[in-house]
Structure formats: C-alpha cells, structure tokens
User: What shape does this take?
Amino acid sequence: QVQLVESGGGLVQPGGSLRLSCAASGGHSNDYSIGWFRQAPGKEREGIACISSHDGATYYAPSVRGRFTLSRDYAKNEAFLQMDRLSPEDTAVYYCAAGPVRILSLGANYYTAWGQGTQVSVSS
Assistant: This one.
C-alpha cells in the first residue's frame, strides 16, 4: 500500500557522513515500521537498522551500531538514516522498506514495500 523512494546517497571519504532520506506515499507514516537494508556487489542483502512505528523502538546491526541513527518525521511521511564515521565497508546500495507497524526486525522477509535504492560509496 505504501511506496518508498530513497535519496541522499553519494560519494564520501572514510570518516565522513551522509544522511539518507526515505519518502513515503500511499499510506500514513505511523501505520508501518521502517527498515534499512544494504547490498554490496556480490554480497547478500543485509539488514542494518529498523524502527517500530508502534512504540518507536529501534534496532541496529552490530556493523553499524553506534555510527548510524534512525529518525522519522511522521507528519511529512519521511524516514532518515544518519550515517557517521563511514568506512569503505559501508559501500553499498541502500534501501528502505516498510513493514507491519508492530515489528522490529532486520529480516527482509518481514517487509512488503521497498524503495529503489540509493548508492553510497565510501572511498579516499
């Protein structure tokens, strides 16, 4: 029911920061939870962060914990992923996804709507 569009990717040096946006349409922002995923060339898609619309709880994968921060602007139907202290290992296409309101999971199978992805490249 909801459609998502990511933006904000680009090229950044190691140690730098980027802020990704996920714009949603076709639903109310408090009716679904948001997950962020990434996929590097030749690798499996990896869940990295999620936020529950039910209670606002967040969860981060160990690979990004302490460096990435989730937020949402429910009035504008936007979700954000602030990425700090980026390293080359963070290079990937990043996707946002929407799932049931009560879930808090990095499992891709829980999510039913996906954005098109935005490229993040970390290189010196």
Notes: The longest strand covers residues 92-100. The radius of gyration is 13 Å.
